[in-house]
Amino acid sequence: MRRVLAAMALLAAGAAQAQTSAPVPVPAPAPAAVPAPPSPMTGADLSFETAVLQGLDKVTARVVTVEAPVGAPVHVGSLEIIVRACKKRRPEDQPESAAFLDIWELHKDQPASALFRGWMFASSPALSAMEHPVYDIWVLDCRGKAVR
């Protein structure tokens, strides 16, 4: 019994000392390195006349690669895609291709419904992705003659 009381007294003394002593500073953890998002394309980038797109039909698991000229509509399944611009960084810069796309879904006997309008980047397809239950579309590259 005396041992139990002695142990309790030691525990109580340690707790009292812990309450009265100054807290020991704990260094804050270093922030995790977050990769920078890709910088937007600039005016110094090269414009090309053709975008290379890839599409996936999630129902049939078919993958199709399409060369889409700037300004001309192309079709992937029930989607109509118009590439408004396709830009690529200069060779001395970090590689990046981006295309500004307008994507609509065509319905029989109904007007087309807009699905996506914006820039898609080849190096980061999930950064600006089109959300659709059946189709995925992403940019692979820009080709053709560089236009000014």
Explain what the structure shows.
This protein is mostly beta strands. Helix content is 13%, strand content 44%. It has 1 helix and 7 strands, in the order H-E-E-E-E-E-E-E. The chain has one helix spanning 2-20; strands at residues 46-57, 62-69, 73-76, 79-88, 97-105, 113-121, 135-147. Strands 1, 2, 3, 4, 5, 6 and 7 form a 7-stranded antiparallel sheet that branches. A hairpin with a 4-residue loop joins strand 1 (46-57) and strand 2 (62-69). The longest helix has 19 residues, at 2-20. The radius of gyration is 29 Å and the shape is globular. The N and C termini lie far apart (94 Å). Residues 34-39 have low confidence and may be disordered.
Keywords:
globular, mainly beta, 148 residues, single chain, 7 strands, 13% helix, 7-stranded antiparallel sheet
Q: Total number of helical segments?
A: 1
Q: Which structural class best describes the helix and strand composition?
A: mainly beta
* Rounded radius of gyration (Å): 29 Å
Strand content: 35-45%
| 3D shape | globular
Q: Overall mean pLDDT score? A: 80
Low-confidence sequence ranges: 34-39
How many strand units? 7
Largest sheet: 7 strands, antiparallel
Task: Report the end-to-end length measured between terminal Cα atoms.
Answer: 94 Å
Specify the helix fraction band.
10-25%
Helix-strand pattern, N to C? HEEEEEEE
